Amino acid sequence: MARSVEFDRTKALEAAMKLFWARGYTATSLPDLLAAMGIARSSFYASFSTKRKLFMECLELFGDRTLAMVDEDAKKLPATALPRAFFETTLLDASPRKVMQGCMMVNTVLELADVDQELNQIAAQKLDAIENAFARAFKLAQQQGELNTDHTGIELARMVMTINLGLRVQSRKNHSRTELKSIINTSLSILGLAA
Amino acid sequence: MARSVEFDRTKALEAAMKLFWARGYTATSLPDLLAAMGIARSSFYASFSTKRKLFMECLELFGDRTLAMVDEDAKKLPATALPRAFFETTLLDASPRKVMQGCMMVNTVLELADVDQELNQIAAQKLDAIENAFARAFKLAQQQGELNTDHTGIELARMVMTINLGLRVQSRKNHSRTELKSIINTSLSILGLAA
DNA sequence: GCCATTCTGTACCATTTGGTACAGAATTAT
DNA sequence: ATAATTCTGTACCAAATGGTACAGAATGGC
Questions:
Q1: How many CB atoms lie within 10 A of CB B13?
Q2: Most C-beta atoms within 10 A of its C-beta, which of A86, A100, A102, B9?
Q3: Closest Cα partner for A112 from B92, B100, B166?
Q4: What pLDDT score was predicted for residue A148?
Q5: pLDDT digits (tens, 9 = 90+) for B101-137
Q6: What is the pLDDT of residues A96-149, one digit of tens each?
Q7: How far apart are CA A95 and CA B61, in angstroms?
Q8: CA nearest A187: which of B28, B104, B160?
Q9: Cβ contact A134:A157 at 8 Å
């Protein structure tokens, strides 16, 4: 039989995701990708079909990873602590580079809303999934009397998500850590989730 | 002497802005622009230098227009009514098409943050100018005792702006009017500006 | 009418885009 | 070692990119 070795597909995908995350879909050229992934053109097409398919994979990876993070937290923490945990790990504890890159799904939605329906839809779905995770947690907490019912769980989740989206824009526009910290605190305060 | 006629530069600029607004910088090609503006290639370069320069002009136009809107409102309305007025005119009263296009400056920041510093900076500055307009209004209202001082004017303005940015993402992701309306109401409610 | 001037439309350009073809190197089972 | 197979690197492709050159039409003062 023949050789079975292969470049590390996962690592290459990860490298591609980083680049797409930072520069977006259109502005990332194939040569850029090949250099970052450390593979040759033919290997690229053999393993990932097209640039567009690769982007989809990256988007899925990013989305699933983010969702997993929220789900993990939802197991360990009370619902009222979820937003703070999410904001802090992704905006204060993360590296400045990552913070400045914002959220790949948000970036994608804004870049491709009028350009590529399918890619846009994937990003939107992943965002919705995260919103739903928050909503589930809030509803449960309300049923157990751990959270006031001034607003429904869904409304609250949408609100947390809207602030989250806003924070992603802020962090991409100007990544002053102290400013982000201040916004996070004000947000949690007005949400009535200030610890 | 020679002819003085010229295509309507302002109208052409407007048309370009609409296209850039919807599709972003990179995804808008020169032929697309020429068609939308209704002018020929040579006229384009004679009047607007390059695609990039044109984009800058469009960005300035969009930003100035938005800022003017806030400033106008700030003259007529109490500071506590400003956010509602802004959200409603741009997200509920505007045409679905415009709503779906989001905010050109936000779109630009997310598309070009890692790609074109200068364009990104222009967009960021315009956004800051709007935030400052809100901050001024809030500070004044606080001095006059019309607004509580639980948070500083700047903090409040940043918060309104963060929610605004989030709403632009939401509206570009999924322009259900009723959902936007709901988010706006929840936002104003938790901000203590629910009228 | 005529000339000067400034417009417009088209043909053209080099570069870059994403994607394909194919030769040759590398690896594994026999 | 050999054969089978799958990798990699390079050369190549058509299409699209932003930008330029230039011929010719349209308009103004005389």
A1: 17
A2: A102
A3: B100
A4: 94
A5: 999 999 999 999 999 999 999 999 999 999 999 999 9
A6: 999 999 999 999 999 999 999 999 999 999 999 999 999 999 999 999 999 999
A7: 35
A8: B160
A9: yes
Cβ neighbours around A18 below 10 Å, total: 18
Backbone angles phi, psi at A6, to 5 degrees: -160, 150
The answer to whether B97 CB is within 7 Å of strand C is no
| Strand D nucleotides with an atom less than 7 Å from a protein beta carbon | 4-11, 16-23, 25-29
Q: Are B139 and B155 a contacting pair, CB within 8 Å?
A: no
Interface list for A 39-78 with B (CB within 8 A): none
CB A186 within 8 A of CB A73: no
Taking the CA of residue A72 and the nearest CA in chain B, the distance in Å comes to 24
pTM above 0.70, yes or no: yes
Nearest to B192 by CA among B73, B87, B83, B77: B83
With CA atoms as reference, report the closest residue to B87 among B164, B176, B154: B164
> Cα(B85)–Cα(A121) distance, rounded to whole angstroms?
30
Report residue A164: phi and psi, to 5°: -60, -50
Q: What is the dihedral sign for C-alpha B194, B170, B106, B88?
A: negative
Angstrom distance (rounded) from CA A81 to CA A83: 6
Q: What's the count of helices (H) and strands (E) in chain A, helices before strands?
A: 10, 0
CA of B116 vs C1' of C22, distance in Å? 38
Amino acid at A21: W
SS3 A31: helix
